[in-house]
Amino acid sequence: MTIDRKPQIRIRAKDPGFLETVLELLLSLELLSVLIQRQIKMRYAQTAFGTFWIVIQPLLSAVLYTLVFGLFVRVPTAGVPYVLFSYSGMVIWTVFAQGFDRAGISLVQDERLITKTYFPRLHLPLSAALSVAPDLGISLLLLLPVAWLLGFPPHPRLLWAFPSFIVPFLLAIGSGSLVASLNIRWRDLRQAAPFLVQIFVWATPVAYPLEVVPVGWRNVLLYGNPMTAPVLLFRYAVLGTPFPPISAIWISFGLSVALLLFGTTVFRSVEKTFADYI
Amino acid sequence: MGFAISVQDLAKRYLIRRSPNGKYGTDLADDLAARLSELVRGRWRKAEYDDFWALRGVEFTVAPGEVLGLVGRNGAGKSTLLKILARVVRPTSGEALMHGRVGSLLEVGTGFHQDLTGRENVYLAGAILGLTRREIQTRFEEIVEFSGVTKFLDTPVKRYSSGMYARLAFAVAAHLEADILLVDEVLAVGDAAFQRKCLGKMGDVAKQGRTVVFVSHSMPAVQSLCTRCLWLQDGVIRMDGTAREVADAYFGSNSETCTQMSWPDPASAPGDREFKLGSVSVRTSEGQGSNEPSTSEAIDLSFGFWNLKDGNPIALHAVILSDEGTPLFRVVASPDVPAGGQALAKGAWTARVRIPGHFLNCGFHRVQLQVSRGRQEVFLTLDNLLRFQMREDRDDPVWSGYWPGAILPSLEWSVVPA
After folding, report:
1. What are phi and psi of A177, to 5 degrees?
2. Which are the contacts of A98, defined by CB distance < 8 A and separation ≥ 6?
3. Which residues contact A268 (CB under 8 A, 6 or more apart)?
4. CB crowding A161-186: b at 16 or more within 10 Å, else e
5. Please, which residues have CB within 8 angstroms of residue A113's CB and are 6 or more apart in sequence?
6. Distance between CA atoms of residues B312 and B315, nearest Å
7. Do the Cβ atoms of B351 and B289 come closer than 8 Å?
């Protein structure tokens, strides 16, 4: 039995070009899907409470925020129950935070695969970040019924939730690829990355509405932080809070694409040394 | 397409970092601290590196269906070359072209993932090779049958024994229809039967017109499998020829012999609490003086040892091997030949065995020693203990050049009228 698609492989010292890389990724989508399945399977296999943890982590954060900002500080949330307000923020925030976290450690985690076989390396952070999708689905299964129960029934504007997921995924892939490739050289970066994410969450209106921020700072958060627009858009879709300025959405999209290009470019330029360092 | 693999002027340099405190800087904090302290001292210099060229100016072409062996000592660059072809390591300069799908088996285990089951790993490996799920499914049965791990298919591979692991890894690589198969040293693991099976399978793969590149320390395996052989030394190709030619040159190049060894201090001698080896030697019998006996002369193998426990039933097993590592025969020196017989008293002993003349063929031979208590419990194995050379006996009136064969016995014919 012969296989007709015999590839011509060229091994050189030079990095492959951008188009070459994209083409290679597109030609191996089968591998991407196997890698995503593997990521998902491993996570659910490791703990009996796998599913449980996916829901509990953002929920616990939301409960904590509810305690501090909903009860102690009493942040105004324009008629939305605070727990719903912060949980909806956490659901979309977690897409970025988890995706970034998994993508960031993907290379170090799979060093055996890297040192023993060849495949387009970008599939590792890509599959790690995309493997967050089922978690998001599970979170929505909890969020939407609870929202309905608390007086926010499904509405056609819910469709806006889908575009709101694009930026968190792009950011997770871009920053995750960057950190993953640096992690190979400097392992202690692994400790620093989650800390940076922790700081970043406070610069995003997850636990507080943008309206309580002084106007000058408000614009910094809205236009300088690419996660702000997706959070606002997702909240609009689920809870009907105000629609974010369209310019903020485009800037957020632009920033995340820029980070994606930057992260993957760094990744591709140090890719050749992975096996040497591991 | 005239070739499966074409390599042009390939080179690989590794930078080995020299840091002042003799430590390899892998921590960001360390790196930054080092740079900062240099900055404070007013000099910003680049970290110092030592060059190491693992490969240099390597050029060769492999035709489809050819089975190429790569031999050479440790550090000669064989594995680096294979890793470059497998695209795990990027070359520093030069180019390689390959026509076809490449499957690789670098060391044991390949790209298996520990937490996944055997079945899932087969699919993962197939996807890495660029096969669709369907294509893998059609070969799944074959793979499982060849590997013999049917019962453990749904067990995570981290629970596999190293043998099972190697078997499945080989089965996957060999059956997933790669056009070019890169194999490194896998035959070192697994039992003899599976090794034969692997060699046979690689031969089949070649017969189907697929190309195999095989790195091994085992010359007999290379010779039995490979049509052609590359000998690498210090990162350059020293020889390119048939497996037979290269094997001859390879072993001819290494003319060092080791005809005796001794351990004067029992504390550092090989052995255990009850047995210590003192010395080993091989020399021509009857003190002929020559260190290189001819094939017509008898040789004596001597083993000096201390027995540290009264009544210890020590048995020495000397294995004589060809230089390529094929065992020729074994002689057992056991004082208790009828099982449970005489055991040794405490003290120093010498065991000697004579190998008659007109028995071993000329060339290099190696000696392996195993020591057991009684007949069963082998507690000491020493490979490559001695290496000696038998000379051709040119004084023999009937000598007429080299005769192939592991042994060269002088046997009596009777030729009578029928």
Report:
1. -65, -40
2. A132, A135, A172
3. A15, A16, A18, A21, A122
4. beebbebbbbbbbbbbbbbbbbbbbb
5. A119, A124, B111, B113, B128
6. 9
7. no
Predicted structure pTM score: 0.72
Round to whole Å and give the CA distance between B237 and B232: 5
Q: Does B115 touch chain A (CB under 8 A)?
A: yes
Tokens of B104: 């690789």
Taking alpha carbons only, the member of B214, B237, B244 closest to residue B67 is B214
Determine how many CB atoms are found less than 10 A away from the CB of residue B153: 16
Tens of pLDDT, residue by residue over A240-277, are 999 999 999 999 999 999 999 999 999 998 888 777 76
Do the Cβ atoms of B369 and B301 come closer than 8 Å? no
Query: Could you tell me if B54 and B77 are in contact, meaning their C-beta atoms sit under 8 angstroms apart?
Result: yes
The number of C-beta contacts closer than 8 angstroms across A and B is 124
Structure tokens given for B143: 């793979």
Q: What is the DSSP letter of B258?
A: B
Residue with tokens 């296999």: A45
pLDDT tens string B167-223? 888 888 788 778 888 888 655 555 667 777 777 888 888 888 889 998 876 677 787
Distance CA B94, CA B85 (A): 12
H or E segment to which residue A116 belongs: helix A111-116
In the stretch 72-111 of chain A, residues with CB closer than 8 A to chain B read 110
Q: Which residues sit opposite B390 in a β-bridge?
A: B363
Q: Which residues of B fall within a CB distance of 8 Å from A10?
A: 95-98
- Half-sphere exposure of residue B285, counting CA atoms within 13 Å on the CB side? 12
CB A173 within 8 A of CB A126: yes
Q: CA of B116 to nearest chain A CA: how many angstroms apart? A: 8
